[in-house]
Amino acid sequence: MWMQDHRSWLFWLYLLVVVTIPLIAAQQQISQLARIDDRGVLRVATRNIPTAYYEDAQGPAGFEYDLIKAFAEERGLQLELKVVRNRKDLFELLRQRNVDVVAASLFLSSEREANFPVSEPYAYAVSQVIRLRHDGDGPAATSVADLVGKRVLVQAGSAHAQRLQELKEDLPGLEWEETEDMDLADMLEMLKSGDADYLISDNMALSLYAPMYPDLEVAFSLNAPQPLVWYLAPTMDQSLTKAINDFLTSRSTQDLIGQLYEKYFEHTQRYDFIGIRAFRKHIQSRLASFQAWFEEGAQKFDWEWELLAAIGYQESKWDNTAVSATGVRGIMMLTQNTAASVGVQDRSNPEQSILGGARYLREMFDQLPDDIPNPDRTWLALAAYNVGMGHLQDAMDLTADAGLNPSRWSDVRQYLPKLALKRWNQQTKHGYARGWEPVIYVRNVRLYREILRLENLPFKAELSPPPKLPEIHVFDRIPPTL
């Protein structure tokens, strides 16, 4: 009798387990994504690096940031970012389930995939072996074997370091230096100073630094294109993974990824200027349509009209239909937020755009400390117009910390490019910025302004031959001596 009751009890216990476990699992599968939806917040870990997340003049930016934000917005979620300094911290947050997703320009890794769910690939990148050409350099390496005996840099914990470890099995003499404290820009500086021979990074990140390093040379690729993925917090169900994969593989997201790639990794085209001859041609063919508004903006906001016209040419080449990959548009290339703040309702309307740009430049000028005299005050305001007041202030702080004059443009422009370097931008409030861009921007605007002044305008239907100018070229990159 006891055995019968015992078996009956075991039977009902077995039945209970068989029935409830799938129900619990199903409930968890529903609740994982539901918890996030109920919370109304998607928690994301990332890094302050140029390929993932940083702040620019318009606010938060970055390929990864824009993409994960689009996913959050599609689900009606707010985005909560946790910005960390290294890869190890990313995965510690994920392991402790303090974040839902890691989006930080990470390659697919079999070791990480064994511990964390991964998304479908959203892009592919190639590990490249890079050097900077110096006078007297011989031929570049063409294979991994050529790296034996060379000083090679790679970021610690990266897929590139893992690949080198695999290759070392066949090449015991292969050595490299892994660093966690330096980012790509810092390692490029080591190449420039001759403290290293090669570095290894991915082609997407390297494309961002081309304007800063004209002697950048790809020696060879370390492997075929590899997938970039998002990593997710470990869980018993796949609801979040499925939602993310559905998003990433949709046609609309694929189109968005193409737009973001153009926006962030083909940005150097924004400085593909067409030269002084073309500028003079545009003075004759385009300026007449807009000059009256440049003069109105100058009078209303106390500027030289030539300065405003120079900004307009730098921004759009005086094309009121211009639209950039970043979504700014019009003669003065205003963002939606900036346009709204200065009362511009239609950015494609040239009068509104020019007057709005003139007002915004005046706001940047007035935000600077009162003791900064002209012309430095104007050049600093131009830099803020391009990169944002926050990043300009960061560069001014670095300039002051170095014992130089933060009120002098010639000093500050030396520290703006350093905002792209990890060892510098970690000291700042606003982090990474493409600090070389405002330096180029201010130089070009000053050049265009001077030419307009020398052309002895106002505009005439037929201009007399322009005065002979010294041989000057529009800057499309920072000279190595800067």
UniProtKB/TrEMBL annotation:
In the N-terminal section; belongs to the bacterial solute-binding protein 3 family. In the C-terminal section; belongs to the transglycosylase Slt family. It catalyses: Exolytic cleavage of the (1->4)-beta-glycosidic linkage between N-acetylmuramic acid (MurNAc) and N-acetylglucosamine (GlcNAc) residues in peptidoglycan, from either the reducing or the non-reducing ends of the peptidoglycan chains, with concomitant formation of a 1,6-anhydrobond in the MurNAc residue. It comes from Proteobacteria bacterium 228. Signal peptide: none annotated. It is found in: Cell outer membrane. The active site is at 315. Murein-degrading enzyme that degrades murein glycan strands and insoluble, high-molecular weight murein sacculi, with the concomitant formation of a 1,6-anhydromuramoyl product. Lytic transglycosylases (LTs) play an integral role in the metabolism of the peptidoglycan (PG) sacculus. Their lytic action creates space within the PG sacculus to allow for its expansion as well as for the insertion of various structures such as secretion systems and flagella. Its EC number is 4.2.2.n1. One of its GO terms (biological process) is cell wall macromolecule catabolic process. Pfam families: SBP_bac_3, SLT. This is Membrane-bound lytic murein transglycosylase F. It is a peripheral membrane protein. Residues 41-268 form the Solute-binding protein family 3/N-terminal domain.
